[in-house]
Specification:
2 copies of one chain form a homodimer. Chain A has 189 residues and is mostly helical. Chain A has helices spanning 15-26, 45-55, 66-80, 89-92, 97-122, 134-148, 157-167, 170-174, and strands at 7-10, 32-35. The N and C termini of chain A lie far apart (37 Å).
């Protein structure tokens, strides 16, 4: 049956969950959170965001123009396939504690190097032009991960600038890991 | 470059991501040129300045089409779907589209990146096979369960979709890393059905311009 609020299974700190929370906030979709303590990585939130876009189309998260849509998806995939999975919890748990930080930094730097170059061609106010898109939903959580792993963001001025603009928006604030039902007290905003 | 020329696909014969796009181009009967990029030779041709200028992500596949150059196989496939819509690679129904994308993402984010060349090169030679098998088994365990709910003849119902384009190359990777596929009957069955289709054959790694003679079909 179709009645009832959507239920989001979310971990406060998961960048994947955060992407979906931003989408729900931008589209003013009221939902319930069921906190899950993260064991298994969900690589499939972009599918969820595309479903939200197709069924609740305003405001848009993908531009109308196919070439611009492609750029949005390219950037989203660069982050969601090319960076995030390589530094997620289940991968880091495979390596010795002493190697994790170096590995995470390597992966993020490699990805951000590519992303910075791409964004220099695509960005306006946000990742692609001047409208918030799915790419921006992927960027902010990944920058938060980068900060968590002490990646020096100096080489990535476009990434930093866009991230700052996005964090000023309400949807990115209400969905922030520091404001979730399952945020531990010591990390709460 | 002019817009009237054929699309150009930057591809490595053995790259599963390149194979996904090759299948899409074949299914949609889009004629294209291949520019092979050898990921191993010369320290990896994807790192050349020339290629990096074309695709800053330094990865294959990249497709030059309609005056733009795009990377990321699923973004490419979705662009092809939107601009050359027949035959369909995504169903019309939004819930089924979501299933197709979920399965595609499970493979394209959840499995393939964790066992691709650049990651394996980070670890000692002696650990690579175990790591690749672990990653693939973990992903295929999840995928097998999902497919039991979604599959008909193919991954989602009875029409070939983007999910199937991701499945076949990933099974080929599994075989390459000697993963025992016995626990995954749905995956095996769908893979077999798909490999019988022409688009999956002409795009196969064993039949590419850059396939080495000893691996050629």
């Amino acid at each position: 049956m179709q009645a009832g609020k959507p239920i989001l299974y979310s971990y406060f700190r998961s960048s994947c969950s955060w992407r979906v929370r931003i989408a729900l906030a931008l589209k003013s979709i009221d939902y319930e959170t069921v906190p899950v303590n993260l064991v298994k990585d969900g690589g499939q939130q972009l599918a969820i965001i595309e479903y939200l876009e197709e069924t609740r189309p305003t405001p848009r998260l993908l531009p109308l123009d196919p070439k611009k849509r492609c750029l949005v998806r390219m950037i989203s995939d660069l982050i969601a396939s090319g960076i995030q999975p390589l530094q997620n919890l289940s991968v880091l748990q495979q390596m010795g504690q002493e190697n994790r930080l170096t590995w995470a930094q390597k992966v993020i730097n490699s990805g951000f190097n590519a992303l910075e170059q791409v964004l220099q061609n695509t960005a306006g106010k946000y990742c692609v032009g001047d409208e918030v898109s799915m790419a921006d939903l992927c960027l902010v959580p990944q920058v938060a991960n980068a900060e968590r792993y002490k990646v020096d963001l100096t080489p990535y001025p476009t990434i930093r600038h866009i991230n700052k603009s996005l964090l000023a928006l309400e949807a990115f604030q209400v969905s922030h890991p520091c404001r979730q039902p399952d945020t531990p007290p010591e990390l709460r905003a």
